[in-house]
């Protein structure tokens, strides 16, 4: 039996589905940047409205995990929601690095909703110059 | 007439690069819609992103909250023109982060703009905006005539 696959139609339906959905931005998990430098990697996560004590940063089995919970805005009794796009509630992200890490020296700083974690490379993973005798 | 040796791999290469371009464009399109336009649109040489917004209405005021992590206070402009609230600004990439080799870039940088028509009139003088922990909170008090009124009706 031959089944005609109607690709354009399928594609259009797909696009239409996406378009007709509420395509408000969904920020259910924080966006992160990871950059590697000579002696360290730097992880930057966007965590607007997250307080220091709502954050848990762990380093276990060479995996760095950033987890936490953002408390939703407390609606006053006479309040009504007109728009709700902020989706960040509970979040957890784990990162494995392509190089060995000095776990004891990881440091983190939270400012203006930006979490910056400095992950120093282990001595063995740092670039070294070998002198020719 | 010179003879040209037919090289099937050349045709294939040209054809596959078209396919890859198309695939990239489709991926970009999907990213734009599925991820809510947060992906930087680099094909037009400009970057733009859409911050998430919450709006609540109370009896006396509107409260607008915008997720703006890492945006400098001075890089945000808020205007209210004939009932339309506009928040625009720019998120700049930190200088230091340009020198590393990136394993992952999910954050969006560049300009953003969002506009909202408020359902009722707002007192122009009492608008207040606070930026804290990466969230911008704008409070707009309603104009007298827009507040809910209780009228007592005497039943005869």
Instruction: Label the structural class of chain A.
Output: mainly beta
Please tell me the CATH architecture of the domain at 26-72 and 87-125 in chain A by its name: Sandwich
Structural class computed from helices and strand pairing of chain B = alpha+beta
Number of helices of chain A: 1
Second CATH tier, the architecture of the largest domain in chain B: Sandwich
Work out the oligomeric state of the chains in this entry: heterodimer
CATH class of the domain at 26-72 and 87-125 in chain A: Mainly Beta
What is the typical, i.e. mean, pLDDT of chain A? 82
What's the arrangement of strands in the largest beta sheet of chain A? Answer: 1-2-8-7
CATH topology of the domain at 26-72 and 87-125 in chain A: Immunoglobulin-like
Largest sheet of chain A: 4 strands, antiparallel
What's the layout of helices and strands?
The complex is a heterodimer of chains A (133) and B (156).
Chain A: H1 7-20, E1 32-36, E2 40-46, E3 55-60, E4 63-69, E5 80-84, E6 90-96, E7 107-111, E8 114-120
Antiparallel strand pairs in A: 1-2, 2-8, 3-4, 4-6, 7-8
Chain B: H1 8-34, E1 53-57, E2 61-67, E3 76-81, E4 84-91, E5 101-105, E6 110-117, E7 128-132, E8 135-141
Antiparallel strand pairs in B: 1-2, 2-8, 3-4, 4-6, 7-8
Provide an overview of this structure.
The complex is a heterodimer of chains A (133) and B (156). Chain A is mainly beta. Chain A is elongated and about 80 Å long. The N and C termini of chain A lie far apart (76 Å). Chain A is built from one helix and eight strands; from the N terminus they run H-E-E-E-E-E-E-E-E. The longest helix of chain A is centred in the first third of the chain and has 14 residues, at 7-20. Chain B has 156 residues and is α+β, with helices and mostly antiparallel strands. Chain B folds into two domains: 7-36; 49-98 and 105-145, Immunoglobulin-like (Sandwich). Chain B has one helix and eight strands, in the order H-E-E-E-E-E-E-E-E. The longest helix of chain B is centred in the N-terminal third of the chain and has 27 residues, at 8-34. The A-B interface holds A 15, 18-19, 23-27, 31-37, 41-42, 44, 46-51, 73, 75-76, 78-88, 98, 112-114 and B 30, 33-38, 50-59, 62-63, 65, 67-71, 97, 99-108, 116, 119, 131, 133-135. Strand 1 (32-36) of chain A pairs antiparallel with strand 5 (101-105) of chain B, so a sheet runs across the interface.
